[in-house]
Amino acid sequence: MALNGSTTNQALLDAQLELWQNTFGYIKSMALKSALDLRIADAIHHHGGSGATLPQIVARIMIPSSKIPHLRRLMRVLSATGVFAAQHPPPATGNSGDDEDEPMLYTLTPVSRLLIGSQNLAPITTMNLHPAFISPFFELGSWFQHEEAPESCELFKHAHGQTCWGQADRDATFNALINDGMVSDSNFLMDIAISQCAGAFQGITSLVDVGGGLGASAQAIAKAFPGVKCSVLDLDHVVANAPAGDTGVQYIAGDMFEKIPPADAMFLKWILHDWDDEECIRILNNCRKAIPPREEGGKVIIIDMAIGVEPSDLTHKEMQAVFDIFVMVINGKERNEKEWKKIFFKAGFSDYKITPVLGVRSIIEVYP
Length: 368
Prior knowledge:
Elements: H1 5-23, H2 25-38, H3 40-46, E1 52-53, H4 54-61, H5 68-80, E2 84-87, E3 105-108, H6 110-113, H7 122-128, H8 131-134, H9 140-144, H10 155-160, H11 164-170, H12 172-196, E4 206-210, H13 216-224, E5 229-234, H14 236-239, E6 249-253, E7 265-269, H15 277-290, E8 299-304, E9 306-307, H16 314-326, E10 335-336, H17 337-346, E11 351-358, E12 361-367
Parallel strand pairs: 4-5, 4-7, 5-6, 7-8, 9-10
Antiparallel strand pairs: 1-3, 2-3, 8-12, 11-12
Helix pairs in contact: 7-12, 11-12, 12-13
């Protein structure tokens, strides 16, 4: 390829930089995973709002002295990508502040603040970065070349020999990984959802959280709306681990593909994107059978992505596209409005409303 002038040269270098950004994107993910494994955010938070130096972080995370130079390099990546912030501390009296040997001070950013505290997103982030979900993507190219029935097109099964839900049924540790991840996401999101779209939950007296896991979403709804009787429907091995004590929620063991107990409203948070269209129609059809007519308050409330619905900035568009590939690991699918409408109407519903108030996700109300 001929290089014609500085403009062409710069264009080539810019293209190479963008290629590298995509090539080495996994380094950012693994750096974040390391920060979670080492609990670096907790170590910084321990020292308060002023931040922590590298020696102070080391004292909390207890790594061998031989790894300290490598930790400094890890912190440089995590700071460059916005997980943490790094700056030199204010100069001491009599010091010009030009000493490059001064220890760097690391502080939390809005991103890393999501990894600390009682309602943090560390469990869902740990789940998303778990080798069981990451390793199937090493086989993505070969997976595309294999002819498989639509119901068998699951990257997870291709890599591990069993479905994700099959492994959760057989492996208590993996089951806990998923349930803890879903709880952390619900603890984070539900207060925002209720605040941003309270009207979706008003006017109903009962609700079933379909596939609701350990019930974090249902508990948040019950707390915000004491007049709503909330239940959680999930499989036996999930309900067996439901929290003890008075949670304000009833737990029901069952299968959403078979039958759903009756209530004014069905609630499905991050459920339908796990399944293909035909399976979604089965779930939604069972939901429709379990609710009263629209004029009596019957509805289905969904929290999921609606691709292409506002907000439409580049960051949101990219994350929705990336997440659509991520849920391919379990043969799932993110949908645009046309695709949602198709399955709603095929399941016998007559109307719907999409409210895009949850970042890349939306609240979708579906009416019989």
